[in-house]
Design brief:
- By secondary structure, the chain is an alpha+beta fold.
- It folds into two domains: about 190 residues, no CATH class; about 90 residues, Alpha-Beta Plaits (2-Layer Sandwich), CATH 3.30.70.
- The chain has a four-stranded antiparallel sheet with strand order 2-3-1-4.
- The chain is rod-shaped, with a radius of gyration of 30 Å.
- About 25% of the residues are buried.
Length: about 290
């Protein structure tokens, strides 16, 4: 068994070297395809993470009218607490909200140079028990006397989910077509080697070589092409994604960009596995037609 494997590996490397430029072009195409596939997975992972973060922090912001007295604000709070679906009510004074807002963007620019007066209103933040109750609670909050405006992320979240689902479906179809095209290229590349060795394969069959023995070197060659393509794709993904994620986090630190090494490693393993699978399948298909004809 091990002697056969050694023979397969030696033959595969020899065939890869003989094909030269064609083999490297195929590796390059697989690299591009797997890189696109990897970025698609990273996009899906990040959008899912962002939507999950928004859903977990779903709340309603109630902006109250200016010049309300402390007693009026206290009465206002009592009305909000009594609304169905409200789990917690937090009062955010406008001065505190303005200070937090300025601190968040202090590293980029000074808002005091642009805005003289605090434009933010006093706000009540409502935590809702269930995302299903957000819209209903927001409508009821608007009817309370003293409300200036009500904002919530429910409709935005639903539109975002629809957009993300459309992106996922479209991306999946695109990646599927790209994977199929890549498989055809791998098959045709290895088939050139198969055709060049057609006489040798015929002799091997005459002396009793089994189909699996004949397929062996071509399958290993396909795996070699897939592994190289996967390795290059992972390098491109890692360095590109790390740079992009660092830049996004420096500009928008509140975005929950995925930086967890375990999650990213899973993506890279999937990319590598797809490369190996495409190479192995391409090697198998490339020689199967000739063996059937024989």
């Amino acid at each position: 068994m091990f002697k056969n494997l050694e023979f397969f590996v030696v033959e595969a490397f020899t065939s890869f070297r003989r094909s030269g430029l064609m083999s490297m072009i195929t590796v390059g195409i697989i690299t591009i395809s797997l890189t696109i596939f990897g970025f698609f997975l990273l996009l899906v992972l990040n959008t899912g993470n962002i939507i999950g973060e928004i859903s977990a922090k779903m709340d309603v912001s109630v902006y109250i009218q200016k010049n309300l007295s402390d007693s009026e604000i206290a009465a206002f709070r009592s009305q909000l607490v009594s609304l169905p679906g409200v789990e917690k009510v937090t009062f955010v004074p406008k001065n505190e909200a303005w200070r937090d807002f300025k601190e968040k963007f202090a590293a980029r620019f000074s808002l005091d140079d642009v805005v003289e007066d605090n434009p933010l209103p006093n706000t009540f933040s409502l935590e809702i028990r269930s995302t299903d109750l957000v819209e209903k609670t927001a409508r009821m909050a608007k009817q309370v006397d003293g409300v200036d405006d009500v904002r919530y992320s429910g409709s935005y979240l639903e539109n975002t989910k629809i957009l993300v689902d459309a992106m996922r479906i479209g991306g999946f179809i695109f990646v599927l077509l790209l994977t199929f095209a890549t498989l055809l290229i791998v098959v045709n590349t290895i088939r050139l080697t198969v055709l060049a060795r057609e006489t040798e394969i015929s002799i091997m069959r005459l002396v009793g070589a089994t189909n699996s023995f004949i397929r062996g070197p071509f399958i290993i060659e396909g795996i070699l092409i897939g592994v190289l393509g996967g390795a290059f794709a992972i390098l491109i993904l890692k360095f590109s994604y790390d740079a992009i994620a660092a830049r996004i986090l420096s500009a928008l630190p509140f975005l929950p960009v995925v930086v967890d090494k375990k999650q990213l490693s899973t993506i890279y393993i999937m990319v590598s596995a797809l490369g190996m699978f495409l190479g192995m399948l391409g090697g198998y298909i490339s020689v199967s037609k000739l063996l059937k004809e024989k």
